[in-house]
Amino acid sequence: MAEKGTISIHTENIFPIIKKFLYSDHEIFLRELVSNAVDATQKLKRLSSLGEITSEIGDTTIEVSFDKEKKTITVSDRGIGMTAEEIKKYINQIAFSGATEFVEKFKDKGDAKDIIGKFGLGFYSAFMVASQVEIISKSHQEVAEAARWICDGSTEFEITEATKETRGTDVILHVAEDSEEFLDEWKLKSILDKYCKFLPVPIKFGTKEEQVEDGKDDEGKPKYKSVTKDRIINDTDPLWTKAPSDLKDEDYLNFYKELYPMSEDPLFWIHLNVDYPFNLTGILYFPKVKNDFEVQKNKIQLYSRQVFITDEVKDVVPEFLMLLHGVIDSPDIPLNVSRSYLQSDGNVKKINNHITKKVADKLEELFKQDRESYQSKWNDIGVFVKYGMLSEDKFYDKAKNFALFTNTENQFFTFEEYKEKVKETQKDKDDNVIYLYTTDAGKQDAYIQSAKNKGYDVLLLDGVIDSHYVNFLEQKIEKTQLKRVDAENIEKIIDKGETIASVLSKEEEEKVKEIFEKAVNNPSMNISIESLSPDDMPVTITMSEFMRRMKDMAKNGGGPYAMMGSMPDQFEMSVNGNHNIVGKILNADNEEKKAQLAKQAYDLAMLSQNMLQGKDLTNFIKRSIEMAAE
């Protein structure tokens, strides 16, 4: 048997660009060839289960090997094999998928979904790294003869008889000069670990040394010897393929460590197992989240029938859950022809919605079952919940029942609980409920204490996305405003319409303002004299809630707020005309003393806002020592 011919290219089925340009990453050739070998093995097992093959199928381990001297890489399977006619049919006709035909043929005889191949293009990825490719195959059919196919990457091929004793297929790549990097044991192993780690058929790559017990020594202690064993690089039965009822917490934690060896243990996890209206399995873990969002992303791995596809899953997984870790496996997620990335369609949106619902249900379940445990995890969970509420209204509708507020006393409240707590004490003259919050309890402590002296509560909102979250909550919670505790004097933040009489005359107020303007000499300070409680601070420096919030969002998120970040700072400086220090300033012996006292009060206000630095801070300390010595 000898034949020469021309490979048939069906341009209506594929793009004309194959070989060098179909796949963006050349290492994918190994994934595609091993996947084809898995397909051949799964087809064999399927035929056996249907009684189409009566003999024992035996060991079906796939072997990947290389020869550095001969410059070859070989992928060998013991699967269904091919006759010469089948090689011409499946290999010479590009984009004629044998897997597609097989599934169609047996669709009425049970489930054939274990077959990976779809487009019939994977084999040709071999030419990205090979100058010549050989196939030696022997069909499972009892009377079939082995065949050899060889091609140099052009449309010319040769097919001849071959000698092969065992059923299956060997694909031999004669590696091109510009791809000799792949003739390296650890390079190949790393590719297999990445793409083939969970394939459903055992894959052998070389051997490894193991220590095994070999009797006892004279003292009765076990002896060990070194033995050589096949190196099986994959787990054929990964955790997400098992029933959740058969698994323990320890199993999930061990699998997480296998996926992310350097990470802390996760907080909890969700096991996905859906077979209608789409197929979806997987395990999503909630990690302990740090503030470096970008570092955390791209930790979810997407598989299709246990073949690794990508860790870019932004269409399948909602944006706010991109911080999760774990695996998703679905044959119903559409891929491009090189199986390198996703193509969006209706199933992707359904899967996205399902994952959102499952996460919301899991969080609500945790909250209801063990609130104390849930609260202890809130610092880590909170970023997911807030991000989700900001991102999707459907998630907000569920999450408002288990989202929590934390106050400066480290107490936790649901939205409804907090509303009940403050709705009477923190209501202003216009019937708005004011939620006070701090972004830094340490730096804003003076303002927090001032609020507490009034009987008010202060929330802690110091997270990386809280500047956006504050705006969002005001839109969602009716008749409620959120104001940072240092945004204004506390009487102004929660204006109850009460007035405090001033101890100063109009002339004295003008004089005090003039003294402070000269002492401060800062055009960014808008100075006003206020009638406040004598117990309040003598001088308060604030930035308007609107301006500060816009600047915070510009700093954390940019976008439409970026322009605000470049605007010059403008502050409000309130002088408490009823404070005894103001009386001392007015009654000071000379102008120099008045200016000194005014500057000291101003610097104290600057210090409370962490705005006193450098030379001004040094002068303040020096002045304080001199005044204490008087």
UniProtKB/TrEMBL annotation:
Chain sites annotated for binding ATP: E32, N36, D77, M82, S97, G98, T169, R339
Positions of region (A): 1-339
Domain of life: Bacteria
Region described as C: spans on this chain: 553-630
A Pfam family hit: HATPase_c_3
Signal peptide: none
Alphabetical keyword list: ATP-binding, Chaperone, Cytoplasm, Nucleotide-binding, Stress response
An MF annotation (GO) of this entry: ATP hydrolysis activity
Subcellular location: Cytoplasm
Assigned GO CC terms: cytoplasm
Annotated function: Molecular chaperone. Has ATPase activity.
HAMAP family xref list: HSP90
Complexes and interactors: Homodimer.
Family statement drawn from the similarity comment of this UniProt entry: Belongs to the heat shock protein 90 family.
Protein's recorded name: Chaperone protein HtpG
Organism name: Fulvivirga sediminis
Gene: htpG
